[in-house]
Amino acid sequence: MSVEEQSSAGESHLPQGRLRLVAEAPLLIVGAPRSGTTWLQRTLLGHPGCCGGQESHFFASLAKVVDDFDRKAAMPRAHGLAAHVTRARLHELLREFWVEVMRATIEARPEATLLVEKTPDHATHLALVDAVLPECRVVHLVRDSRAVVASLLRAGREPWGRPWAPRSAEAAARRWLECVEGAESAAARLGPQRFMRMHYESLRHRGAEVLPEILRFADLPHDPQLVHAMISGASTDAVGRGGSSIALHGDLEGRDASEPPGFARNSAAEDWRSTLGFREKRRVWRLTAEVMQRLGYDRDSGFVGEGRH
User: Fold this and answer.
1) pLDDT tens across 143-190, in order?
2) Does the residue 263 lie in any domain?
3) What is the 3-state secondary structure (H, E, C) of 23-77?
């Protein structure tokens, strides 16, 4: 029976201890949507020690449960889940759920030692992530707010982006702010051993120099030849095709993992200087300037500094 058939049949072929070791200490990639998080995940999945799948939205979805837990516990007539379990126990149950959700993805690549999970929205739920997975590490991928806004507006015109992409430059800029500030607020709590800020622009233009920093942060062995292969294997075309780096499980098992046309684009094809109007550029800068400058961006030059934790 193949690995895939075993997973489908619900048969574990990894010791429970090994499964938990990988599942409970993942590397989470977060950031504003359209910041290159998919590209970074696919790059890392080119390492033989990594496994990962399509974004789970696990914490974004379960945060509603935790919020409801707290809200109902604080009511004059206390009720809800808090009447049955403690908050600490709820976190333990969510940890068990996480392990089971990630089981098929980990077992599909049993030689892997690191689970790489990418969900941009987790940027705003890192306090919950830390409570449930205290051994996780986080890479916050930051991209120029104006490039993100231009890409979000473009996504909003595509069938695959209409359900979630903002329709105005102001709304897109506020979405960038929400995600970036959410991620950055966790930097002090997690500390430099568990939180890394990485700039899209550095990774795009100096990948061979910068990718090893992420690999060292993730405790992944590497050499120049492997780094080159990882970068080559995560080209725009390769991400668009989906390749063999991810597979879908659960109810979507067997479905094509390729991203839709237009999802992965060459960076040169989305130059915000030509795609955003003058008023849009001015409005986005006014909304995001304080955070942008703190993170190493200049109004005219774009990214000018490293700004890494």
Assistant:
1) 999 999 999 999 999 999 999 999 999 999 999 999 999 999 999 999
2) yes
3) HCCCEEEECCCCCCHHHHHHHHCCCCCEECCCCCCHHHHHHHHHHHHHHHHCCCC
